[in-house]
């Protein structure tokens, strides 16, 4: 046992879990924690963005580029609410993010007395954005709860967690043993489930592998490719499953290819996916049997109607299948034909966007990190950008969080271990995060931000033009002079005119290892969704 403050105990518990960086903004309720971090400043960095929303965005980006949990820190009330968008995005994308949320003094919680930063029922707000959250009532509980939070992130479905921490607990003098991280058992695929799935495979002649966001990381990346090769089966990646297999693999297909495959497939095995359309229905696979593999029970039930539902870790089950599934001849020439058709359809329908997507891909090394905003280029990237390595593609999932890309990419660049990071955004989305160019400058984060400027919320404007007879409302923008803005922040800036210019500018910015903005002025593009939704 050692005498320390609650803030010291929290800092030491984070260090024991391997945390090297916390993304947070100090405030009076957190003084006990930041003082504890000061005493360990040679071992843990506090990176301070310029908006509380960016704390959780950066923690999420850090996790998705590194595979390690990201940690964010905010004051109570408005701090928690501002951080909520990043927590919602992390929740949607099953990211390992721990939020350290301050509270008002413990004796005042729930009193409604108007304490600084007090909001009603903060705990319930936090609970709605997390897999697990706790508010210790004694400072001595802090280390154990930190370890439990990390255990929760590392087991089952890896969603965000939170600790709410009162200033009185963080300042309290205690005798406590910080202890070691809690052991996490390696997931094992149940033998009876492996047998049942092998039986379905034996009865199938044309199986399809479908992968979602639950198939993630270097181990899963290798296993999916090995199983596809063994079965000679197509691998269809959902938007959240991009990076589960190298897009250059001859078995890899984008999400919309499932509409073609369903005509002749007799079995679809979905790993780590919700397996729902954006309208809350089971993905239509025609007459094919459906086997769902997911660690989350809620993602196996209604409205889905699987022939086989397996609650298990997708990667563990993949490992068992690779070991036991017999090699076979599969789709052969039809798969090669379909890959070529998918590529042709993408380039026919959205050629203007694909020129820029190709330029970004060419400028990035295969393990470079691409952070994809919901902009006109970004929408096409959800199926057109070839992801070639694990932990190299980041997007906001079903949350569709506009404006998240730039701060998320800053966190990704911190976690990427020197790999280049490129974010795409529009002049609409960048308005959420302009202030974070100061963060890039302060910490020398070599993020390349490609900014597409059309003076509009482009997708909203196009829908108003095409669907609502040109009744434009709320979709026009007045922008700053981005060149002057970059100069004010001390950020490199380059104007380019076309896709070739984008590629050249990204390559130069990566080589310079400094934060940079690449701006390209564009017009509103063709709909990026005509290709995807034409058969829905």
From TrEMBL:
Thiamine pyrophosphate enzyme N-terminal TPP-binding domain segment(s): 4-117
Occurrences of domain Thiamine pyrophosphate enzyme central (ranges): 195-321
Molecular function terms, GO-annotated: 5-guanidino-2-oxopentanoate decarboxylase activity; acetolactate synthase activity; flavin adenine dinucleotide binding; magnesium ion binding; thiamine pyrophosphate binding
Domain Thiamine pyrophosphate enzyme TPP-binding: 382-520
A cellular component annotation (GO) from this entry: acetolactate synthase complex
InterPro entries: DHS-like_NAD/FAD-binding_dom, THDP-binding, Thiamin_PyroP_enz_cen_dom, Thiamin_PyroP_enz_TPP-bd_dom, TPP_enz, TPP_enzyme_TPP-bd
GO biological process: isoleucine biosynthetic process; L-valine biosynthetic process
The enzyme's E.C. designation: 4.1.1.75
Top-rank EC class of the record's enzyme: lyase
Alphabetical UniProt keywords: Lyase, Thiamine pyrophosphate
Family to which this protein belongs: Belongs to the TPP enzyme family.
NCBIfam families: PRK08266.1
Designated name of the protein: Putative 2-ketoarginine decarboxylase AruI
Native source species: Microbacterium azadirachtae
